[in-house]
Protein 1
Amino acid sequence: MARIRIPQNSFTFGEVSPSLTSRTDSPIYKNAAEKVRNFFIRGEGGLTKRPGTKRWHNFASAPAYSSGLRQTLRIEPFIFSDDEQYIIAFSNTQIDVFQISPSDATVSKIQTITSQSWLVNTSSAPYLEEYTFAQQGDIMFICHQTVAPRKLVRTSLTSFAVETFTFEESVDSENVFQPYYAFQTLGVTLASNATSGTGKTLTSSADYFVSAHVGIYLKIGNAEAKITGFTNATTVTATIYGTLRQQLNNDALKTAEGSGTIQVTHALHGLAVGASIVIDRAGTVGGVGISNINGTRTIIAVVDENVYEFTAGGSATATSSADGGGAPRIATGSATTEWQEQSYSAVRGFPAAVTFHQNRLWFGGTLAQPDGIWGSKSGQYYNFDVGDASDNDALDLTANVGEIFTIRHLVSNRDLQVFTTGAELFVQAPTDKPVTPANAQIRRQTPFGSSFVRPTVFDGATLFIQKTGTALREFLFTDSEASYTAVAVSMLAPHLIVDPVQQASIKGALNRSESYDFILNSDGTLAVFYSIRGDQKQGWSLWDTQGKWHSICSVHERLFVASSRDDGSGTTKLFLEEFQVDMPMDFCNVFSASSSVFGSLGTHFANNAVVKATNGNDYLGQFTVASAQIDVSLSKASVSTGFIGYAFTPLITTLPVDAQVIGGPLTGEPRRISRVVLDLESTLAVSVNNKDLVFRNVTDDMSEDRVAITGKEEFRILGYSRDPRVSISQSFPLNLEVKGMVVEVAFG
């Protein structure tokens, strides 16, 4: 019988799609596996069992877990500084605040903010997964298309408050520095029965208003009016701040030599003979002085809907026929097409996306303006006044790239990146220049579209979930193309992405030098993407747990999850947990024992919970919690501390072991894996094809802990198969690290 030794020195590509099981010709095949479950992929090529989770908190006051919603609770990071870090948990009408202690890194709840009626998460309105967040300093901005933007404000080290976002106002409170837009049909006019004051009547030339317009601001010419009452679809009452003035075009005035009549070009002026107007900011024209033009004047003739005349003051006459007058304004309440409505409201919707970029606060994508993008004034996050388009003024942009796509996310990376339902864009400025109103350009790059899952900045790129929810793409600027690409980095393992809900990333964390991106699937699993861009290494694994993971976030290089699981009570509950390298199991903690009896478990586990216990180096067994305690004395007579939790199963299953021999590949031929040699690192428990490695003999002192193995260990395997595989796992929740292996195959 012939034998061949096949090494697998690397698992760099991790778990790959079942469709690759026949690609024995590919270099990927030699560095991948059929399953990589609950492992970290290492840059060196090996696999390390993932850490377990430490239980921090039971969300007893939060709404119970519901299988009808993808998320009933969502956790997000709030990072003020290295020493001041928080986790914010959002649920239906409630916000819980957790503080991470700078002294000992413990996590504790410091505040619950209730009665947040805007924070809706019911089966009829599952909003949590759709919210977007942007945090800087003491403030987190929270956005959703159907909810007025909120601010979560840190008011002290241990106190937070929720406020509704409001735009900055002028000192005299006559101007709100917010974006406006002309929502009316082309040609629809608005007239006022006065130029200023309270209780004034505004009348549109076509149906426009609804009762929800009460409280909304209009911009009429250069003045603002707040609607205070609704009469019908064409009529409302309002308070007019300042004076209604209509800006005329440059050189809108005309004189005739020897005449005291001033002719005004004023499109759709809506004036009649005898109407009174007030003119300001006019200049000299035809020899008629400024003082004879500016002021209160009476209409003496109406030439047509765009032209009217008045008599110059002081009996002045023109010395020449001329066009000019600068750029005058007319104070009048007459019908005009120059009016707009505030962009954000209950009528028009609110921004779906928010971020900070180049010292500006950016919003994007309302219901009425799904492709709108707004940037604040530089350094003034509440001022969105476009002004005269100076470099520091606010920006009001439209992602006009042909089709109208809804903006879902704004991301600050190399550029301001715009992720929509149908394409990926970015706001371009000249090289090495900040974005300004004068230089901002929106460029369409890739055609895939984004889901509600918020993208993450990862290893120099931005990772986003494609709209279909079936692929993770890498939005990356390439110098060679001078543009962005969006490569599907999930192409080798698309089966691991299942209707994603949330995403988080860490770099150099959990005792790892590599970067990892974690995608929370709706089935409660985590698809884990590993990447070292400089070495062109990347791969996938899948993590699961007893129960489900429900939400995820990273705080610097710490990874937190909200889990939904049974603590032994028979009821699924929500918990806050953290992946920690010293935790061998999930839902785990360190407990003290007296005479090998672990008591006081009631704050962690309910009676009847089936748990496992270790002392870190040795497995103590499986136990059922009774009277809030477990007794491990039969396993080890002297135990003072131990880890108690729910075990998870690490699993590596190789692709079918195949080789090229004289006569061709062994694919489909009966063959036997006769021997497997594992290269292990600090391993305390491992099995190959359900055969456990023996760490101790019966003659050993069982009171002593088992000793970790580093080096080569051999396993003899029986049985023939046409597509043999090697399965690596463990029976006990202890340390496991596989650096590589050699498989001996017998055939013929």
Protein 2
Amino acid sequence: MNQSRRGKRRPSRKQAETASLDLSNHLECGRSLAWFAVQQFDENGTFIRDVINDADVPGRFTRAQRGQAVDMASGVIRRRRTIDTVLESQVTRPRGNVEPDLWRLLQLGTWQVLYSKTPEHAAVDSIVTLAKRTGCGRWSGFANGILRNVQRLLQTEQSADPRYLLPTDGGGITLSAAVLPDPREDRVDYMGRAYSLPRSLARRWCGRYSDEELIPLCLQTLAPPALTGIRVNLRRTTVSEVQTRLESAGACVISGPVSESLLLDVSGSVDLLPGFQEGLWVVQDPSACQVGLMLDPQPGEVILDLCAAPGGKATHLAELMGDEGTVIACDVTDWRLKRVQENVERLQLSSVKPCLIERDGNGVPELPYDAVLLDVPCSNSGVLARRPEARWRFSENDLRELTELQMELLLRSVDHVRPGGRIVYSTCSIEPEETTDLVAAAVDHVFGLTLKNQCLQLPNEHSDGAFRALLEWNE
């Protein structure tokens, strides 16, 4: 045997077909960047924006290409289960026999055909071209055929049969075939496929909500946030002054549901807008602003923010009490506290003191805290539109672990607050186990802990979904 050939066997055909492509060497346009971002999310769990930020070295992509990548990758992740349902109706071979990167390419193409404003010919041709440029010309014929079939599914007349209708804000996309299951036979399967929800979440929501409540909620999770909420730093400026400056820079600005908030309709990086670098405002959803208002901090108080990063709520507390007092802003890693410190410095606040603590909660300074803000890690079920990856991270096992952690943190908060002190428990989940049920269980468990007020808010066009509860503890 020729010794030079030992150890250099060619991979089998099956191995060659299932190995992931090195797409990082083919980032030439917005579509290729989107393909790479979806691949990295699937294989490593990396958030879409983190992949795009890391790949976008200065000068590599135009603003339009970056925006296209975010829109495509986020759109595919949001609509993935619906897209897969459509594709499975057109692909005759078993899903397991289609290379993962080819399937992701088909997902991108199907999203373009169904949900984007891409011209009909370009929706398919651009995907075929992308396959060829990436050295996967062998996929081009297959991709072209499948995506043309998806195009042929589209009908102009609206259907009254939900099996033929892909729901959208505008009413729906009518297909020529019954792609979706019949909701009368399996409501959970229909809602999961029509609104791209994992089965566990679809089952939960179908059990809690009527169609009149559930359909608007599901549609809201699929709508990319059109508006960005900001909180004005009232210590240094006024809402009207900030609005005037932003409008003069070309931003569309409307008043928010909270007195110090505004809603921006902008594209691109908001940190380039006037007033941001000066610390006149900070990005914060109105639902998050409500948390600080519920705690109602007073000048001179000592307040503990137990899970502070990136610092939006801690800095809001400081602003509400006129920067007179102390906010101990805790978190468990240096890099998370660095984000808190950056916001503190930009907003020019002196009362916020970042503090590194251990993951088990040890290390919190022993002070007589007048109030504790506890914004817990959660399932993110109230912010699925803003965080497209969150729906596919949801699981019943993770939820059980999260609720154990949330209860532990809430009980620790009681240990830190002085008698007569206040605790605000907040989360961007809308699941009962993380919200109303958990707070009720804590009140039953802890002597002297009373519930003063609580609010569960479903996501809407102006605000994320969220929960907050005000508690008081007395010996």
